[in-house]
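In response to reviewer comment 3 from the previous cycle, which asked for concrete evidence that the modeling workflow produces usable outputs, we include below a single protein chain processed end to end. The sequence was submitted unchanged, and the resulting structure tokens are shown without manual editing.
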Amino acid sequence: MALEPRGALVLFSGGQDSTACLAWALDRYAHVETIGFDYGQRHRIELECRSVVRDALARGFPHWAGRLANDHLLDLGLLGRISDTALTSSRQIEMQANGLPSSFVPGRNLLFLGFAGAIAYRRNLSVLVGGMCETDYSGYPDCRDNTLKAMQLALSLGMATPMTVETPLMWLSKAETWALAHRLGGDALVELTIDQTHTCYLGERGVRQDWGYGCGSCSACELRRKGYEAWRAAA
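The workflow returned the following structure tokens.
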């Protein structure tokens, strides 16, 4: 398959989904950069995983190494200070009266895409790639397809240049996300995902499960575990 000549910027947290998206982008685009955000998240250990995963991808997949370029890490600490959520403070994760879990950080993905768009504009990149999904997810409204389509339009209009927001996981279950990683990078990419990526909202990396590290009980761990078990059962 011929590589896309446009440059891509992947919203890369160091988690399972964004790692699958990074592999997806490296398989398609000749030039790929990454961007991450430090917003005071409880599970900020994911930020430490980012460089580990990038280095492992470059070493383990030489055909991708030459396509993987600059990384950008932005300080969005203000978001954490104004959010007052279970993802940015030591609170229990529970369902709220509005039907959303207390881990929902209002405006997070909107801000991420806005800042990513600014970096992409300056770097002459025209594709933003994110791991948002509304199949197996926690109900966050800023992960929904309509939200992402609206952001693509707003970014393109507001910067007077075409911006494409790609969400390769949007309609995939977590089992299908595991399958995508295996299709893109075989057992090596699956093992890298298990060993090096981080998903747990509580930042727990003390115990390695079959599907990776985590507390095993938060919603992020539950989705990851169930997806892994479903994928393995169908394999």
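The domain at 4-234 is CATH 3.40.50.620 (Rossmann fold). We consider this sufficient to address the reviewer's concern, and the full set will be provided in the supplementary archive.
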